Amino acid sequence: MNDETLLLLANKAWATQLKDERPDYFVRQAADQNPNFLWIGCSDSRVAPDQITNSPPGVMSIHRNVANLVHEDDDNLMAVLQIAIEKSKVSHIILCGHDGCGGVAHGMNRDATGAVAHWVRDVGELSDRHRTELEVLGERERIDRLVELNVSEQLDRLSRLPIVRAAFERGQEVMLHGWVYSLTDGLLRTVRTIAATDLLQEQPG
Question: Which of 27, 127, 191, 196 has its CA at 20 to 30 Å from residue 98's CA atom?
Answer without folding.
Answer: 196
